[in-house]
Amino acid sequence: MTAHHPIDTYAARALRGGWPTACDPQLEFRAGQLVELLGIWHSVRGDRTLPERRDFSARTLKSHLRDLAFVERSGARYRVGYYGSGLVRYSGDLTGKHLDEVIPAHQLEAWHAAYDTALSAATPLRFVSQLRAFRLEHMSAESLVAPLADAEGRAAALLISVVYGPRLT
After folding, report:
1. Angle at Cα 80 formed by Cα 78 and Cα 85, nearest 5°?
2. Separation of CA 52 from chain center
3. Fold classified for 6-166
4. Contacts with 137 (C-beta within 8 Å, 6 or more apart), sequence order
5. What is the C-alpha to C-alpha distance for residues 2 and 107, in angstroms, rounded to an integer?
6. Which of 23, 68, 100, 145 is the least buried, fewest Cβ under 10 Å from its Cβ?
7. Paired residues of 24 in beta bridges
C-alpha cells in the first residue's frame, strides 16, 4: 500500500464528501493579515520544525487576536482554548468548547479532517471554504491553519485565523 501525503488524502476525502472547501499548501493568501500572521509563525518558529503555543505572546499577536483561535487536540477531539472577538461575531464564543459540541454532526468530519491534515503535514495550510455552519451559508472563509508543537515537539495544537467575506462564485 502506498502512503499518501496528508494534503492529497484530505483533497480526496473532500471530493468524496462534497465538502465545500479546498486546501492550498502553496499558501497563496488573498488576505494580507493572513500573510502577516504566517510570517509571525515562521519568525517565532525559528529553526525548529514547529513553534509551541507558549512562544506566542499577546504582544506578538496583538493585531491578530480578534480573528485568531488556538485549538488543542485532545485524543480524537478538538477543544478551543482561545477564540477571538472577531470570530465570536460570526459564530458565538467557542472558548473552552469542543468542536463536537458546536459543529453539526454531519459537518464535523470535514472540520476534523482539516485540522488533522495540518497536524499530520506539520506545516501551515491555507483553506478556502464556502461556509455551511453557524447560518453563514452566504459567506466564504479564507483560513490559516498552522500547527503548534507540544513540549515534546509533536504537532498537537493549532493557531487558526479566519477572514470572512462574501461567498465566492
Report:
1. 150
2. 15
3. Beta-Lactamase (3.30.450)
4. 130, 131, 167
5. 28
6. 100
7. 126
pLDDT at position 2 is 43
Q: What is the pLDDT of residues 71-93, one digit of tens each?
A: 999 999 999 999 999 999 888 89
Helices of type H across 30-169: 32-45, 58-61, 85-91, 99-102, 105-121
Q: Give per-residue pLDDT as tens, 4-14.
A: 689 999 999 99
Strand 21-24 relative to strand 125-130, pairing: antiparallel
H and E: helices and strands count for the chain? 6, 6
How far is residue 83's CA from residue 121's CA, in Å, rounded to a whole number? 24
Q: pTM of the entire structure?
A: 0.91
Residue written as cell 500547527?
A: 147
Which grid coordinates belong to 126?
491555507
C-alpha cell at 102: 458546536
* Contact partners, residue 161, CB within 8 Å, separation at least 6: 33, 34, 37, 64, 67, 68, 69, 143, 144
